[in-house]
Amino acid sequence: MAAGATPIGFIGLGMMGLPMARSLVARGFRVLACDTADAARAALAEGAADGAVAFADSPAAVAAGADAVVLMLPNSRIVATVMEGQGGLLAALRPDMLVIDMSSSEPAETRRLAALVEARGAAMVDAPVSGSVAKAKTGTLAIMVGGGDAPFAQALPVLKGMGEAIIRTGAVGSAHAMKALNNFVYAAGLLATAEALRMGEASGLDLGILTDVMNASSGRNIATETKARQEIIPGRYAGGFQLGLMRKDLDTAGSIAEETGIAAPSLALCRALWKEAVEHLGPGVDNTEIHRFLGIWAPR
HEC string of the chain? Predict the structure, then answer.
């Protein structure tokens, strides 16, 4: 993007948001950011070219200086506060502006906010990501996108500044739904992998060979491929995704089950186990520590 071009607004410089915003800067975008953390703002500005990074003191101020605004926030509640609260984004939107919600949000809430954005003459897409902090740093995230043709076309250059695989999912809200369902399937695979490794250890099996067997057979999943040898067996537990965030995605999947009337018993089991794990270990530990939790867990 040319040096004089309108900057991309970016609200939320957390664990994922900061490297995503830095990825945009590295690809030539100017970024107008908003975050309450001094350290996050300093980290975004560090090493950036003159004029590449600026900061606003409110979401409304971001809207005043940008035509497209990325939200990378922890949950729908905070997204709603940023949108509708004092100094919020919604009231400051202009016709033809674009809001790109990359947060882990609830689909029904996304649809509600999108309708409010459209009433202002602007547009909104939901564009949650899949991938670790490492992929955010290299701009190689997978990004799911829900929304109409014109907003998608407007968002695409920005999304390509942060991701490698851009997958359209349908109407606005569909991407947040698909991310939650995808992460439920991942959590179920991780849980099964952790349980299998616990049983294998108790049986005196070579866990490396057990992992090889699973990866060469029908038990293969992303957890056996990228978490078993790398994080779980050595007890490193540093896969790059927090236990509390996994629980939040499972709860979002649970809201979809309730909305659709699907019983989803395996989802209910995952939600219950992750809830207990967060209570015992805290939300900030890595999601692979579900394996460690199983070693200390006593069913209620």
Answer: CCCCCCCEEEECCCCCHHHHHHHHHHCCCCEEEECCCHHHHHHHHCCCCCCCEEECCCHHHHHHHCCEEEECCCCHHHHHHHHHCCCCCHHHCCCCCEEEECCCCCHHHHHHHHHHHHHCCCEEEECCEECCHHHHHHCCEEEEEECCHHHHHHHHHHHHCCEEEEEEEECCCHHHHHHHHHHHHHHHHHHHHHHHHHHHHHCCCCHHHHHHHHHCCCCCCHHHHHCHHHHHCCCCCCCCCEHHHHHHHHHHHHHHHHHHCCCCHHHHHHHHHHHHHHHHHCCCCEHHHHHHHHHHCCCC
Which regions of the chain carry the CATH code 1.10.1040.10?
Answer: 177-296
- Whether 95 has a pLDDT exceeding 90, the answer reads yes
pLDDT tier at 300, thresholds 50, 70, 90: low
The pLDDT score that the predictor gives to residue 2 is 40
179 catalytically annotated: yes
Active-site residue, selected from the candidate residues 135, 179, 227, 248: 179
pTM to 2 decimal places: 0.91
Topology of domain 177-296, per CATH? N-(1-d-carboxylethyl)-l-norvaline Dehydrogenase; domain 2 (1.10.1040)
